[in-house]
Specification:
The complex is a heterodimer. Chain A has helices at about 5-25, 30-50, 50-60, 65-120. Chain A is mainly α. The longest helix of chain A is centred in the C-terminal third of the chain and has 54 residues, at about 65-120. Chain A is elongated and about 85 Å long. By secondary structure, chain B is an alpha/beta fold. Chain B is about 40% helix and about 15% strand. Chain B contains 9 helices and 7 strands. Chain B has a 7-stranded mixed β-sheet with strand order 3-2-1-4-6-5-7, sandwiched between helices. Chain B is globular and about 45 Å long. Classes of the chains: A mainly alpha, B alpha/beta. The interface between A and B is medium-sized, with 14 and 12 residues.
């Protein structure tokens, strides 16, 4: 069984994480779409922290002798998911950034040419 | 800013009103090459007073070229922003060019331009700042997946609670806005799936929203952007946004001079 103090500490940490995420959304520093995975992470850690029986069964299932380790592994797994998600987001952003730069450069060139044309007239 | 604003504000109250309001139809279109031309033609036939702007939301087909061939203004977004970003671009265009009224009409043809008159009535009578065309008050005419229908009714119940008025169709994108609403949406409009949040946003900013029953059509071509898995994401995301919205402070948008 998980030591009670570990459960309490993990639950408090999860609640703090959730509150920070919600405040970031409220103050518009985090968009909902990028917050969902974080919220799921906080919720899963919170549920497993207070539902000690479930954490015990889960660790039995995968052969982890010390249940708090299972909590740790799970948290690491979710962090991995969030990182992977961000990698896809960065890829998309860098694509869009390239397209913006290209469009801007083409526009500048067009503007310059039409300025020269109107000077010639 | 624009001459239109200057003249309308200079005119004494109740005296000569501006001869005609400047009206804009915002047509967001993402890969709608099969329907955008007929939407534009129908708009022209039904509402000749309207200027039309097509927002091409990063289409990979010939949507933008076809719209340009119809002779309307086309704004090409460099990549797909989603319906929220596309529609907001339309409201920014309306604000920057001094339009008095803006109506959203989907590029897929599901919104019937013949209903625009009915949509405008509450705006012109000064009873509303935003008018939403709703599918349900007419009874029937709309079919969709069960999940979609459940979602629509769930949001209707929640939004009705939040805005303290009966709202039947929060996901309808068939809307009309006056200057106040245009200036709000130009600076603040939700991302992704914006309709539900936009309704709450407008009301919480002190704008008056009115629903008007309209007949909608089945999509002409293409497919709905909302699939089964996306529906779940959609619901969670919008519910989260509505919940967080409760804790945000809102100010009323700037009064027109």
């Amino acid at each position: 069984m998980t030591p009670l103090r570990i459960s309490i500490a993990a639950a408090i940490a999860a609640v703090i994480l959730l509150l920070v995420i919600l405040e970031l959304i409220r103050s518009r520093r985090l968009q909902e779409r990028y917050a969902l995975l974080w919220l799921l992470t906080g919720l899963v850690i919170f549920v497993l922290a207070i539902w000690r029986g479930l954490l015990g069964r889960l660790s039995d299932l995968v052969g982890i002798a010390y249940p708090p380790s299972a909590l740790f592994v799970l948290a690491a797994f979710f962090v991995l998911l969030v990182l992977l998600h961000y990698s896809t987001v960065i890829s998309k952003l860098s694509d869009q950034n390239r397209i913006l730069a290209q469009r801007l450069a083409l526009l500048e060139q067009q503007l310059e040419r039409s300025r020269e044309d109107s000077r010639d007239l | 800013m624009t001459p239109e604003q200057a003249t309308s504000s200079a005119a004494p109250r109740g005296a000569q009103r501006p001869p005609r309001l400047r009206e804009l139809a915002i047509v967001p279109a993402h890969n709608e090459e099969g329907s955008v031309a007929s939407v534009v033609r129908e708009l022209r036939a039904e509402e000749p007073g309207f200027e039309i702007v097509v927002i091409d939301d990063g289409s990979t087909d010939r949507t933008a070229a076809i719209a340009e061939a119809e002779g309307v203004e086309v704004i090409r977004l460099p990549f797909n922003l989603g319906i929220g970003g596309a529609v907001q671009t339309g409201y920014q265009y309306a604000r920057d060019n001094g339009f008095d009224v803006a109506v959203q009409v989907d590029g897929d043809g599901q919104h019937d331009p013949r209903e625009i008159g009915r949509l405008l009535e509450p705006l012109l009578e000064g009873r509303a700042d935003m008018v939403v065309g709703t599918r349900f008050a007419t009874g029937g005419g709309y079919r969709g997946t069960r999940l979609r229908r459940v979602g629509i009714h769930l949001f209707a119940a929640i939004v009705s609670l939040l805005v303290r008025a009966r709202v039947t169709d929060t996901t309808s994108g068939f809307r009309a806005a006056n200057r106040k609403t245009i200036s709000l949406f130009a600076i603040d409009y939700p991302h992704d799936y914006p309709e539900v949040e936009a309704t709450v946003l407008a009301v919480r900013h002190g704008l008056r929203m009115v629903e008007v029953p309209v007949q909608m059509r089945v999509r002409e071509t293409g497919s709905s952007s909302i699939t089964a898995l996306r529906s779940v994401y959609y619901m969670v995301k919008v519910l989260l946004a509505l919940f967080i919205g409760l804790f945000r402070r809102y100010s009323t948008p700037l009064e027109e001079p």
